[in-house]
Write a structure and sequence with these properties.
With 347 residues, this protein is α/β, with parallel strands linked by helices. The chain has two domains: 164 residues, Periplasmic binding protein-like II (D-Maltodextrin-Binding Protein, domain 2, 3-Layer(aba) Sandwich), CATH 3.40.190; 150 residues, D-Maltodextrin-Binding Protein, domain 2. The chain is built from twelve helices and ten strands. β1, α2 and β2 form a beta-alpha-beta unit.
Length: 347
């Protein structure tokens, strides 16, 4: 009788262990709705969504896509509402806003298993990770600029050859253009922008408009983003790009999980996916972006990770997040000094 009772309890224990084990397996598979606020172009994020859902069919990925300023305004609007922030993930254009959210305890600390493979743009305390890299470059019209006239450095833009023939996205509204201003003023001083405006600059609303201006003959050269110019060039349009030899402005586009997320398992799954080798290949192939992993090749003729690290103009992101108002104010003072005001038709 004792033996039978003993065997019965062993059997019950085994059944309970098996049920617990299988339940944990089911729970380990992420599912449910995951909401992401992002600045990634709609076509690209939609394709990424389709690929991600193939791997995690139980997840419903809800995407809110806006520009950097739009995402910031949307997040702040939700944070001030009774419902609160609904995003599980925020993926924006540069680290500045996520640094601010980190300081306000809005972000969730998470150590991704991909961490050791990531070479650029990561928070030291694991609140966000660079998920794509963009580089601010010089784009030029291959119809009107050639031979010795092709600029190879930032200082070349100060030459009389480009007087009145330069375009830049407005740093007061474009986050990556602001990043470029911050980097270049640290390297060359504010005098660089005084000389640039003295040489004649057309200020556009965003980087896409800068590329349009180069292609439409409004200007000959533009300070813009590499992936945009590379994409236009690949489509056969007469625009080329130069990575300036006197310093690269490298902008990591970071992703973070929110502290208030109701589906952290799903959010972690998406973050790990986009930081994986497959996710970074998607960044290169779909968007012409530079990868954050050194084991993934960048687009053709783009710099490898070692070159980015060695030739970058360092940007002190934490300091910049604190000084953003002061830096924008100094830039605006230069605009006033040269009597430049961005009119609606410039946009």
């Amino acid at each position: 009788m004792r033996k039978q009772l003993f065997l019965f309890f062993i059997l019950v224990g085994l059944v309970l262990f098996f049920l617990s084990w299988t339940t944990s397996l089911v729970e380990a598979e992420p599912s449910g709705k995951v909401s992401i606020f992002t600045t990634i172009p709609q076509k690209i994020i939609d394709t990424i969504k389709d690929d991600f859902i193939k791997k995690y069919p139980g997840i419903e990925l809800e995407i809110t896509r806006k520009g950097a300023t739009g995402i910031q305004s949307y997040v702040e609007l939700e944070l001030g509402s009774p419902k609160g922030l609904t995003a599980d993930l925020i993926w924006t254009s540069d680290p500045i806003y996520l640094i601010d959210l980190k300081r306000r305890n809005i972000l969730y600390q998470y150590t991704t298993p991909e961490k050791d493979n990531l070479a650029f743009g990561n928070d030291a305390h694991n609140y966000y990770y660079g998920a794509r890299l963009m580089t601010v470059i010089i784009a030029f019209s291959s119809d009107r600029v050639y031979g010795e006239d092709v600029p190879t450095s930032w200082e070349d833009l100060l030459k009389p050859r480009f007087s009145g023939k330069i375009a830049i996205a407005d740093p007061l509204t474009s986050g990556t253009s602001f990043d470029a201003v911050a980097a270049l003023k640290d390297k060359f001083g504010w005098e660089y922008f005084e000389e640039l405006f003295e040489n004649g600059v057309t200020v556009m609303k965003n980087n896409s408009k800068v590329n349009d201006a180069v292609l439409n003959g409004v200007v000959d050269v533009g300070i813009t983003l590499d992936y945009m110019a590379r994409e236009r060039h690949a489509s056969g349009e007469p625009i080329q790009l130069v990575y300036p030899k006197d310093g690269l402005v490298v902008v990591p586009s970071p992703i973070a999980i929110t502290y208030s997320s109701n589906n952290k398992a799903g959010a972690k799954a998406f973050m790990d996916y986009i930081l994986s080798a497959n996710g970074q290949e998607q960044m290169v192939n779909l968007g012409n972006f530079l990868p954050v992993r050194s084991d993934i090749f960048p687009p053709e003729n783009a710099p490898r990770m070692q070159q980015l690290v060695e030739q970058q103009i360092p940007i002190r992101w934490d300091d910049l997040a604190t000084d953003i108002i002061r830096v924008k104010g100094r830039y605006f003072d230069i605009m006033k000094q040269y009597n430049y005001y961005a009119e609606p038709e410039d946009y």
